[in-house]
Request: fold
Amino acid sequence: MSIVEKYEYFGTLLALGAIIWLADRRFPILRDIPVNSTLPPVRRPFSLARVQMAVWTTVIIGTIVYIYAVHFGDSAQLPAIDTKLIALLGGSGLTAILAGAVDVNKDKTVEGANSSFRGAAVGVRSLNAQIQSALTLRDSTGNRIPNVSMVTKLFADRSEQLGNMSQFVKAGQRSQRDDNKSGFFSDLLTDQNGNSLHRLQLLLFTALYVGYFVVHGVTVGLEDVLKAAPMSDQVLSLMGVTGGVYVGFKVPGKSAATKSSDKPVVP
Reply:
């Protein structure tokens, strides 16, 4: 490729990437969307899985668009694509789907915990009223005659309900996802427990192979890298493993150390 063609190619990739970035300003296509989020799209945290999918889409689709534009006068057919590139796109999409499924499950856990907490809180308020009534019970002469056995049982039921509320709070806090962005790379590299090696691993391998694809295409020829992707089966397996590790680490939620200072809310 000549210098002009290289600039045109990189310009095509940047233009497509800019379109996706600008679209994200309006529609949260690159963002996590926690349950009950009221923040505008630009305030929500970036999703590593969605960003990875967008990067591979930009590079592969951008390459196809550039080749088609350059050779449009010669042929109206789109260039052939190696099945390995299709597998890369499918793998990044699958990672995003699985990560989204984990997030949806966490959101359902949070909603369930909040609902159970509210139900238990209603029960505690009812028991408080019953305890107050039992303690102020009077006979016909006006003397207090508290029903000791009833009061004891009511206090035991109240204690059990308060314990349930504490467990509901902890369950919700463990699965609650962050609702505010802290910066592009910070969003990609951190989760509820802080800096994450599995996120860094996925980001580094993605950057490595995307860069290799682009450089190899500029050096050898874009049509050649589309027809015969410079990635071995081991590379595809490695990307699948890093994606699987990333999804696997999303499942547990916040660690005990992270939420050790959280206090249950008691009405």
Observations:
- The longest helix spans residues 83-135.
